[in-house]
Predict the structure.
Amino acid sequence: MILVNNLRKSFGRRTVLNGLGLEVEPGAVTLMVGANGAGKTTTLRAIAGLSKPDAGTITIAGHDLQRERTAALAHLAFLPQAPRFHPRLTVRQTAEFYAELRGRLRGVDMALDLWGLDEFSRVPTGKLSGGLRQRLALALVSLADTPVILMDEPGLSLDPDWRRRLQTFLKSEAARGRTVLIATHLLGEWDGRIDRCILVDQGRARCALPPEGIRDGFPIAIAASNLSRSPSTSSGPRAEPRSSRSGLHSDPLALRVSAGTELPRSPAAHAAGYILTPVPEMR
C-alpha cells in the first residue's frame, strides 16, 4: 500500500504539488491521470525517493519514506518515463546487473523471455529501438519482484500488442496482491483495463474517475475541478463536490453545477456514474 499525505513541492515560485493526498491499495491497478504539469510525474518521483518534497509524508508498505528510507524503497520498483541504460552493455548484461542488485539472478532468463528479448540478449542497449528499450525496462521491473510497482507512461514506445501484454502483466501482478500505480495521459489505452483511476489537477488529487469511460469522464472532471477552484459569485457558475461515505478518492465524481453552467458531457460519461445536477442561482 502507498499512503501519501499533504504532499507539497515547489520549483522556485512554481508550486507543483499543493497538499496532494493519495491512498493506493494493494491488489489493484490504479491509474493517475491529469493534464501536462498537473503533478503526476513529480508525485511518482517523490514516492520513489528521487525528489524530496517540501512537506508531507509518504508511507510505502508500512514504512515511512523519510524515517525508514532503505526499508521503504526495498519494497518498490519504479519505471521512469524515459529509462536510460549504459549504451555499451548488452541486454543480458544490463538485466544481470540489475538482477544482482536485487539478488534475483535466477530470474533473468524468465524476465527476458517474458518481454520477448531472448533474441536481442547480445545486442548493446545503445542499438535498441525505443520499443525494445521500453521492454527491457519492463523486464527489469518484473525482475525486482517488489510489492509496489510505480510506472510513468509505461505504454509509450510500445506497439498495440505489447501494450496489451503490459496490461495483462499488471493485472496479473495486482491479482498477486501487488500495489500498482501508473501515471499516464493515454486515456483510451487504459479504458476498462484498470481497477481505479484518480484525477490529479493543479497538484492535488481531485476525484476518482470510473475505470470504464475514462476518456469521456476526463473533460467533465477537469471542468468540474476548474469550477470548484473558482471563487463563487452571485451571478457566476458554481461547482460543489458532494462528499460520499468513502471519501473523495473512492467514488465517481458527484458534482452540483449551478444553473446555466455548461460542461463537456456525453452519454458514456453519464452512464459511467457522473451526477451533474443544476442548482438554482442563489440570490
Remarks:
- Confidence is low (pLDDT under 50) at residues 232-283.
- The two ends are 47 Å apart (CA to CA).
- The first helix runs from residue 40 to 47.
- The first strand starts at residue 2 and ends at 11.
